[in-house]
Amino acid sequence: MIKLYKGKTKFMWLPVTTSTEFESDGLVCWAAGLLVPAIAGYAGDRIVGVLHHTIASTDSDYATARLVEVEVPVEKNVVWKCTVDDTAALTSTDMGDYMDISSVSGTTSSAVDTTATDEDIFYCVGYISATEGLFILNIGQGYATQTDA
Questions:
Q1: Residue 60 resides in a domain
Q2: How many Cβ atoms sit within 10 Å of the Cβ of residue 8?
Q3: Does any domain span residue 149?
Q4: Pairing of β 111-113 and β 79-84
Q5: Second label for 52, Cα 20 to 30 Å away, from 1, 71, 96, 110?
Q6: For the chain, how many structural domains are there in total?
Q7: What confidence tens digit (pLDDT) does each residue in 127-145 have?
Q8: Eight-state DSSP code of residue 142
């Protein structure tokens, strides 16, 4: 789960890849001019924002070309409340660290992996519990690697 905590965002209607499943409250990114779920390994500069509803193969418009509503940050340092995957707990000492998108099945675009730092998508700015924290998304045209930050 990735939900706005603090900061300015807006909703944009963007084209989605047909016949592709998306998790609710998960990150989405560009691929060939269409949105796909952002999964582990995607660079932050390709990620657009958060899709807040599920797209399932059982949906009546699953194979239809259409636009979907995506929440995108419109200012720097927007803070998001995010779930941490169940493979590694978040700790208070993780604040100030970069982390990646989870690769755990069922949360591949909607949770944080505290043990991976290849893409640096999430920047931890607050500890809530072992399974939830506050993060700044390192995405879009403002994307920076750790060495750039």
A1: yes
A2: 10
A3: no
A4: parallel
A5: 96
A6: 2
A7: 999 999 999 999 987 666 6
A8: G
**Is 13 among the domain residues?**
yes
Helix residue ranges, H only, the chain = none
Query: What pLDDT is stored for residue 146 in this prediction?
Result: 55
Amino acid occupying residue 104: V
- Could you give the 3-state DSSP secondary structure of residue 69? strand
Same domain, 33 and 49: yes
Share of the chain above pLDDT 90, in %: 85
Task: Tell me the pLDDT tens digit for each residue of 3-15.
Answer: 999 999 999 999 9
DSSP string covering 111-126, please? Answer: EEETT--SS--EEEEE
> What is the chain's Cα-based Rg?
15
Q: Is 106 contained in some domain?
A: yes
Range(s) of the domain holding residue 98: 79-142
Alpha-carbon span 87 to 75, nearest angstrom? 31
Same domain for 136 and 88: yes
Q: How do strand 132-137 and strand 122-129 relate by DSSP bridges?
A: antiparallel
Distance CA 3, CA 81 (A): 5
69 & 12 share domain = yes
Q: Are residues 53 and 107 in the same domain?
A: no
List, in order, residues 6 or more apart from 80 with CB less than 8 Å away.
2, 3, 4, 5, 50, 134, 135, 136, 137
